[in-house]
C-alpha cells in the first residue's frame, strides 16, 4: 500500500489565506453593487474541475437523484457542485474537504445564497470517512482522486457509507501516457510529490476491489479541451467584465482561476497541453455497488 501524502502538502497546495477576499473581489467585479446573489451567479467562481458548470450539470443527470436523497460530495472544494445538487434536485448534501479554507469559503458562499439548510460542509480527510454505514444514497467525487495515494482505501470507505443500491460517480483527471512527461504546476499539484494521478485501469481495479461495478464510462477530453481554451481566452480578453450570453458561465473572467491562485495560467496551460497531447483525460466513471 502506498503511503498517504502528508495532508499538509495537499492543503498547502490549495490554501491561499485570503480566498474569502479574493472571491468577494471577483464577485464585486462581476456584479458591481450587488449584495445578494443566487447560487447560479456563483458559477464560474465556485467549481474547481475541468468543464466547470457544464460538466457539473451533465454529471448530475447521471446521479439519478430524487428529492430528499442524501448525497455525499467527496472533496467538496468551494461547494459549487453541492449547491447545484441542492438547487437542482432538492436533495440534502454533505461535503467533506481537507482544506480548511475551502470549507470556510463553502459555508460562507452557501449562507450568502440561502442554501445552508440543505447542505453542510465538513473539514476532514475523505480516506477516513466517519459516517455510519449506509448513510448516503449517492456520492460523487469531482477532481479529487489525483490527490489521493490510496484509492482502494478511499473507494472502500465510500462503498461502506453508501446504501446497497447507491450510486457513486468519479470524475477525475486520469493518466493515459508516460507520467515522466508531466509538467508542473498542474491544477491539483504544484509538484509531483502530492500528485497521485492514476490510469483508468487502476481506477477500475480499485473500484472493483471495493465492490463497485462500473456501469458507464465517459471520456470528457474533447469537452474539457474546449472548456479550458474558452477559460484562457476569456481571461486574456475580458478581464474584469461580466459574462455575456448563454453558456458564458464556463468562460467567466472571474473564474476558477481565483481558486487556483497566482500561477493559475501556468496550471491551465500545462493541463490543457497534456490533454491536447493525449497524456491526460478527464474521465467520468459511473459506479454502483455489486
Ligand atoms: C480540484 S479541487 C475540486 C473541488 C470540488 N470537487 C469541485 O469540483 O469544485 C480538489 C479538492 O479536493 C480536496 N482534497 C484533496 N485530497 C483530499 C482528501 N484526502 N480529503 C478531503 N479532501 C481532499 C482539496 O482540498 C480540494 O478542495
TrEMBL record:
<keyword id="KW-0489">Methyltransferase</keyword>
<dbReference type="Pfam" id="PF08241">
    <property type="entry name" value="Methyltransf_11"/>
</dbReference>
<dbReference type="GO" id="GO:0008168">
    <property type="term" value="F:methyltransferase activity"/>
</dbReference>
<protein>
    <submittedName>
        <fullName>Class I SAM-dependent methyltransferase</fullName>
    </submittedName>
</protein>
<dbReference type="GO" id="GO:0032259">
    <property type="term" value="P:methylation"/>
</dbReference>
<dbReference type="InterPro" id="IPR050447">
    <property type="entry name" value="Erg6_SMT_methyltransf"/>
</dbReference>
<dbReference type="InterPro" id="IPR029063">
    <property type="entry name" value="SAM-dependent_MTases_sf"/>
</dbReference>
<keyword id="KW-0808">Transferase</keyword>
<feature type="domain" description="Methyltransferase type 11">
    <location>
        <begin position="72"/>
        <end position="170"/>
    </location>
</feature>
<feature type="region of interest" description="Disordered">
    <location>
        <begin position="234"/>
        <end position="253"/>
    </location>
</feature>
<dbReference type="InterPro" id="IPR013216">
    <property type="entry name" value="Methyltransf_11"/>
</dbReference>
Amino acid at each position: 500500500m502506498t503511503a498517504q501524502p502528508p495532508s499538509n502538502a495537499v492543503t498547502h497546495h490549495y490554501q491561499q489565506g485570503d480566498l474569502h477576499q479574493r472571491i468577494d473581489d471577483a464577485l464585486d467585479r462581476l456584479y458591481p453593487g450587488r449584495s445578494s446573489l443566487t447560487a447560479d451567479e456563483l458559477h464560474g467562481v465556485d467549481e474547481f474541475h475541468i468543464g466547470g458548470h457544464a460538466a457539473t450539470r451533465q454529471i448530475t443527470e447521471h446521479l439519478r437523484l430524487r428529492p430528499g436523497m442524501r448525497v455525499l460530495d467527496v472533496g467538496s472544494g468551494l461547494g459549487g457542485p453541492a449547491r447545484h445538487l441542492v438547487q437542482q434536485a432538492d436533495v440534502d448534501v454533505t461535503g467533506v474537504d481537507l482544506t480548511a479554507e475551502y470549507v470556510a469559503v463553502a459555508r460562507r458562499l452557501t449562507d450568502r445564497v440561502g442554501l445552508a439548510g440543505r447542505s453542510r460542509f465538513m473539514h476532514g480527510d475523505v480516506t477516513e470517512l466517519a459516517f455510519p454505514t449506509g448513510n448516503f444514497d449517492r456520492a460523487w467525487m469531482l477532481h479529487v482522486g489525483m490527490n489521493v495515494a490510496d484509492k482502494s482505501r478511499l473507494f472502500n470507505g465510500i462503498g461502506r457509507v453508501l446504501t446497497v443500491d447507491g450510486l457513486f460517480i468519479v470524475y477525475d483527471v486520469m493518466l493515459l501516457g508516460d507520467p515522466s512527461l508531466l509538467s508542473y504546476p498542474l491544477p491539483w499539484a504544484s509538484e509531483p510529490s502530492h500528485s497521485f494521478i492514476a490510469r483508468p485501469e487502476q481506477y477500475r481495479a480499485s473500484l472493483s476491489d471495493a465492490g463497485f461495478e462500473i456501469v458507464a464510462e465517459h471520456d470528457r477530453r474533447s469537452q474539457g479541451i474546449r472548456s479550458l481554451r474558452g477559460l484562457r481566452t476569456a481571461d486574456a480578453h475580458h478581464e474584469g467584465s461580466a459574462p455575456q450570453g448563454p453558456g458564458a458561465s464556463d468562460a467567466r473572467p472571474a473564474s476558477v482561476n481565483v481558486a487556483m491562485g497566482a500561477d493559475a495560467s501556468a496550471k491551465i496551460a500545462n493541463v490543457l497541453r497534456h490533454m491536447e497531447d493525449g497524456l491526460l483525460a478527464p474521465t467520468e466513471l459511473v459506479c454502483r455497488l455489486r
